[in-house]
């Protein structure tokens, strides 16, 4: 039986070109970028190049990119770094109820330190209303953190409008673009974004590396102390091979963005067409128009998420219930809960997410296996 991986929102396979680019840094180029000698300087140059590539991918300057251990650390750094460095401005932070736990749990941590957080609601499509953001801004609001595109249902937020609003009101704007990067156009200048998180392993790069863009001039406290790496904003010897792989993956993702988008759009339509043919009872969760095409979240009323995922796994189809961090637990997704979906949709939701390696044949086959399982009840 062919195994079919439809869980790319959780993580993606490393692209062969990415692995190829990384190998020399495990084999021969072992220097420490902070060393004065040529072994170090060669590697320093590589890290600088990678920084320029990542900067270009989001339309930032190289000095505005801080390499991190991934999306989670970038989110932590943005929130904790900015809130603690700007205590003189206030203690209030605005976010949404549908953020990734890397943001939500960091907000809870900040609350435990005495900061105040407003968690904005979303509508039934998973969107935050810009007016709600405007109304939540107080004189002591320091920053807004609203994700670019949601990792569970794929819904896109009004990033440009929120960015403009934040700028007008003198509030910093952070967006978790981990899931949107490589799918949507991510331009920090055009969208008025001050801080932005991305992660390599969601775009066919290696796990354990990502970056935070922090606009020049933003006060951000470092919370990993040690050497002078990353302009003292994040100490520790650089993950050189990871950074090289990240840059190659990001470049590939940007260069193939349009064709992959079209491919994912085709795959999701095909999947639904198969279900329609087989009279499968399903309903799509998320926004009908403003969505990322690689994520398809559907409820199969009458089924239960956990049992379905188990049956799908036995049938060789890998999918998820929402965020990977939640799998294995029976808890209802906080995202679907915030969208106020009826109970039968909450308990029967499954997320399918596509990647560049998925073929039409694979997805048709998966859709048919799913149809058989759902229709058998
Ligand atoms: C995967 C993901 C993260 C976490 O990134 P890691 O690199 O796995 O730490 C954060 N936010 C979103 C939206 C994600 O999809």
From TrEMBL:
It catalyses: (sulfur carrier)-H + L-cysteine = (sulfur carrier)-SH + L-alanine. One of its GO terms (molecular function) is metal ion binding. It comes from the Bacteria. The keyword Nuclease does not apply. Residues 4-364 form the Aminotransferase class V domain. The keyword Transferase applies. Its cofactor is pyridoxal 5'-phosphate. Its EC number is 2.8.1.7. Keywords: Iron, Iron-sulfur, Metal-binding, Pyridoxal phosphate, Transferase. NCBIfam families: PRK02948.1. This is cysteine desulfurase. It comes from Aneurinibacillus thermoaerophilus.
